[in-house]
Design brief:
Elements (H helix, E strand, L loop, with lengths): L5 E9 L8 H4 L6 H10 L4 E7 L10 E4 L3 E3 L5 H12 L12
Parallel strand pairs: 1-2
Antiparallel strand pairs: 1-3, 3-4
Helix pairs in contact: 2-3
The chain binds FE2/S2 (inorganic) cluster (FES).
The site of FE2/S2 (inorganic) cluster (FES) has 12 residues, from strand 1 and helix 1.
Length: 102
Amino acid sequence: MKKPMYHILVCNSYRVAGDAMGVCNKKGTSAFLQYIVDEASDRGLDVTVTSTACLNVCHQGPIMVIHPNNFWYGGVEAESVIDEILDALEEDSLCEKYAITD
Ligand code: FES
């Protein structure tokens, strides 16, 4: 099995039991999943994108995490934000503007 270079986690607010109902889902992260896949592909980034359960930083949501770098981003609410984050990832760098640092 070929493993991707990056694993992008996008919070979609799933709960252990029941439907997605948290902040990130309400702010529309579901709509961004395909955009992230397409943009990463266009940039030649080797990524897998996964939507997740609540990542427990709801007050900074919507949340996106990139591993193995352990880059945590908040306020991922627009395609322009994703573009800036992926621009940085092309350099294997953190986009400090949206980084969660505390
Ligand atoms: S719902 Fe996304 S971090 Fe909690």
